[in-house]
Amino acid sequence: MDHRESNELTMSQLSTRHLLGIKELSETDIRLVLETATNFKEVINRPIKKVPSLRDITIANIFFENSTRTRLSFELAEKRLSADVVNFSSSNSSVKKGETLVDTVNNILAMKVDMVVMRHASPGAPHFLSKNVPANVVNAGDGTHEHPTQALLDAFSMQEKLGDLTGKKIAIIGDILHSRVALSNIFCLQKLGAEVRVCGPVTLIPKYIESLGVKVELDLHKILEWCDVANVLRIQLERQQIKYFPSLREYSLYYGINKKLLDSLNKEIVVMHPGPINRGVELSSDAADSSHSIILDQVENGVAVRMAVLYLLAGAKG
Fold first, then answer.
1. Does the active-site annotation cover 180?
2. How far apart are CA 181 and CA 176, in angstroms?
3. Which of 80, 147, 168, 197 is catalytic?
4. Whose CB has fewer CB within 10 Å in the chain, the N or C terminal residue?
5. What CATH architecture is 149-295?
6. What is the pLDDT of residue 93?
7. What is the pTM of this model?
8. Do 3-147+299-315 and 149-295 fold alike per CATH?
9. CA–CA separation, 270 vs 279, rounded Å?
10. Residue 70 catalytic?
């Protein structure tokens, strides 16, 4: 991306100065992020992968919940944009000594941080933060609420494979109840004109889901025959305080996807997973590593999409 390309992109801006959730974005915002990510994907496949776009910006990554993939993806995106990066983990911080969220962030902002990327176990924490600090805030996952950059990278990956998503049939399969990815995906895909259905054990389907215009299918075979894309979610045992199904073996028997099942379908479908995969539970290794799968593309696309988000927010004035 040369100086001219950079100037052209800056002429289009997001309608918001924070990325708190997909719900707050317009279809135009989403399409702008995806279009900008296409430019950045080309950048990260060059021999010299850095651009000076955020050279004067300092970004703090504040993770109150453990994360490896999302944190590394954001950090790589920030460094590719030449930003200064501060990493903060609550596990070895003053938060354990009783410091509040606002205290922590204000201390970091006193160091003149321009942007905060935050993951937090409490739904709404990034929204609260955005009202209390002057920096741009990016939600890297808040409880079981939203995970907007995952939805954007999923949409980008689908679009790369299938073209325009208008009228495409997307199935979200697995632990819908505890998933922030599912909610963000539903909002994002619907705004892009796709039809979304969910599938999983009835105990893992939230009661409100149909109010979002999403149909529920309890039969895995039926939804796989229906869909163009199966976005398979991880069973989040760490968020389950009670047992929602008898055993992982039984879950795998009824809702696990393997290569034999994919080959038995009347058409070729795309298989995705936000990671990390419980291999042998949601997906068998032969399905995860098959030609159906674009899981590794999702990982690569995550960096390009997060570069796009950070770049566009840095240019947002209000």
1. no
2. 8
3. 147
4. C
5. 3-Layer(aba) Sandwich (3.40)
6. 54
7. 0.91
8. yes
9. 18
10. yes
Enumerate the domain spans of the chain: 3-147+299-315, 149-295
157, 158, 163, 167: CA torsion to nearest 10: -160
Helix (H, G, I), strand (E, B) or coil at 19: strand
Candidate list 58, 70, 104, 149, residue with the active-site label: 70
Torsion of CA 292, 294, 296, 298, to 10 degrees: -160
Q: What is the mean pLDDT of residues 58-79?
A: 93
User: Cβ(65)–Cβ(119) under 8 Å?
Assistant: yes
Fold of 3-147+299-315: Rossmann fold (3.40.50)
What string of DSSP letters covers 101-154?
A: HHHHHHHHHTT---EEEEEESSTTHHHHHHTT-SSEEEEEEETTTB-HHHHHHH
pLDDT exceeds 70 at position 90: no
Task: Residue 199: count other Cβ atoms within 10 Å of its Cβ.
Answer: 26
Dihedral pair phi/psi, residue 70, rounded to 5°: -65, -45
Residue 235 one-letter amino acid: I
pLDDT of 98 strictly over 70: no
| pLDDT tier for residue 250 given thresholds of 50, 70 and 90 | confident
Cα 314 from chain centroid?
Answer: 20
Average pLDDT value for residue range 295-308: 97
Tokens linked to 151: 């939805």
Among 5-14, 105-114, 205-214, 231-240, which stretch is predicted with the lowest mean pLDDT? Answer: 5-14
User: Do 306 and 77 touch, CB atoms closer than 8 A?
Assistant: yes
Which of 18, 119, 180, 191 is an active site residue? Answer: 119
Catalytic residue among 4, 96, 97, 243: 97
Q: Which of 255, 245, 298, 299 minimizes the C-alpha distance to 280?
A: 255
In the chain, what is the straight-line distance between the N-terminal and C-terminal CA atoms, in Å? 25
pLDDT in tens, 17-54: 999 999 999 999 999 999 999 999 999 999 999 999 99
